[in-house]
């Protein structure tokens, strides 16, 4: 039935998906927004957001997301708690499999984001936003003059560590191996920095202290010697990468080796009518404001696409 085909479905309710929802709703496209497996995206795991324009005193991440949800809903955006299992993009309207039900849509905006890799420590999740972070750009400022630990051995970890030297009194880079995956130029830059020290062959067993709602230190152990000790730190930043939430499009859309969607001309994909925005296709900036910007772009392209196809 023609009436049961949606004009557009938006995957994800982070900054990108909700901005796309706002623009699509204001264009009277009645977008359907699917929450996905991480409703609110990474901002929902953040406490104070101080780098989103328009909030001179900052705003809590979950509050910013809730405001964006309400704003899009006011113009007619609909929300559905569902997770995309698979999609058939071989013909329009596209078919989306949500497990117990299916959807048909003329256009699709993929704003499903990228999930930070975590260590899986006993107290890690309870301290996210309270000293445990996966974004130095977002949270580094809060630890001015403090001692910080960065976990990882690739370019992401080196970038995080180098950025954090602007604020921290000392940055300790902790890596489970002796050898690093980072490029020589990034590793050399980190090694030359007077504020950065290295702990190799070492893993984190846990992070403290949940009872104080702040990071006070890490429990470490050396993989070669077996020695274990408590290491004082005011924050733990994860530099072990992100996992883009795009595997359901494998074989249908262009992806890089790590699974990020590769857009063509800003937000276009190889399939006409399918657009990618936010962190699912951005491994470089990964900021709330850049995600919001590409969400706006995707919705505007959806509007043009539908007009061009007589809808």
Provide structural commentary:
This protein has 311 residues and is α/β, with parallel strands linked by helices. The chain is built from 6 helices and 19 strands. The strands form 5 sheets. Strands 1, 2, 5, 6, 7, 8 and 19 form a 7-stranded mixed β-sheet that branches. Strand 1, helix 1 and strand 2 form a beta-alpha-beta unit. The longest helix is centred in the C-terminal third of the chain and has 21 residues. The chain is elongated. The two termini are 15 Å apart.
Structural descriptors:
311 residues; alpha/beta; five-stranded parallel β-sheet; 6 helices; 23% helix
Q: Tell me the number of helical segments per DSSP (H or I, 4 or more residues long).
A: 6
The portion of residues forming beta strands comes to 25-35%
Structural class: alpha/beta
Order of helices and strands: EHEEEHEEEEEEHEHEHEEEEEEEH
Mean pLDDT: 93
State the separation between the terminal residues, measured CA to CA: 15 Å
Q: What's the helical proportion of residues? A: 10-25%
- Rg over CA atoms, rounded to whole Å, is 21 Å
Shape designation: elongated
Uncertain spans: none
Number of strands: 19
Topology:
Elements lengths: L4 E7 L3 H12 L5 E3 L13 E2 L9 E2 H14 L3 E3 L5 E3 L5 E4 L4 E9 L3 E3 L15 E2 L2 H4 L7 E5 L3 H10 L5 E5 L9 H9 L3 E4 L2 E7 L8 E6 L5 E5 L2 E4 L3 E3 L29 E3 L11 H21 L3
Parallel strand pairs: 1-2, 1-8, 2-5, 8-19, 10-17, 11-12, 11-17, 12-13
Antiparallel strand pairs: 3-4, 6-7, 7-8, 9-18, 14-15, 15-16
């Amino acid at each position: 039935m023609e009436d049961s085909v949606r004009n557009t479905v938006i995957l994800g309710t982070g900054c990108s998906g909700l901005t796309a929802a706002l623009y699509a709703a204001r264009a009277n496209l009645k977008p359907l927004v699917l929450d996905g497996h991480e409703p609110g995206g990474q901002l929902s795991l953040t406490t104070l957001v101080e780098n989103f324009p328009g909030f001179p005193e900052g705003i809590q991440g979950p509050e910013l997301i809730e405001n964006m949800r309400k704003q899009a809903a006011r113009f007619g955006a609909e929300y559905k708690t569902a997770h995309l299992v698979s999609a058939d993009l071989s013909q329009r309207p596209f078919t989306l499999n949500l497990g117990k039900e299916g959807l048909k849509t003329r256009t699709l905006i993929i704003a499903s984001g990228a999930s930070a890799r975590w260590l899986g420590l006993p107290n890690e999740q309870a301290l996210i936003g309270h000293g445990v972070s996966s974004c130095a750009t977002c949270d580094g400022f809060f630890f001015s003059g403090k001692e910080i630990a960065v976990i990882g051995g690739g370019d992401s970890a080196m970038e995080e560590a180098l950025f954090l030297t602007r604020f921290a009194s000392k940055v300790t880079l902790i890596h489970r191996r002796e050898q690093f995956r980072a490029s020589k130029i990034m590793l050399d830059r980190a090694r030359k920095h007077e504020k950065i020290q290295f702990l190799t062959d070492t893993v984190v067993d846990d992070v403290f202290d949940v009872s104080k709602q702040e990071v006070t230190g890490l429990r470490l152990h050396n993989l070669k010697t077996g020695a274990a000790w408590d290491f004082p730190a005011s924050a733990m930043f994860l530099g072990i990468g992100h996992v883009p939430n795009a595997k359901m499009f494998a074989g249908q859309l262009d992806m890089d080796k790590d699974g990020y969607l590769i857009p063509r001309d800003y937000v276009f994909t190889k399939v006409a009518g399918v657009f990618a925005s936010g962190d699912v296709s951005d491994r470089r900036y990964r900021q709330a404001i850049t995600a919001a910007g590409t969400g706006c772009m995707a919705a505007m392209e959806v509007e043009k696409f539908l007009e061009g196809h007589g809808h």
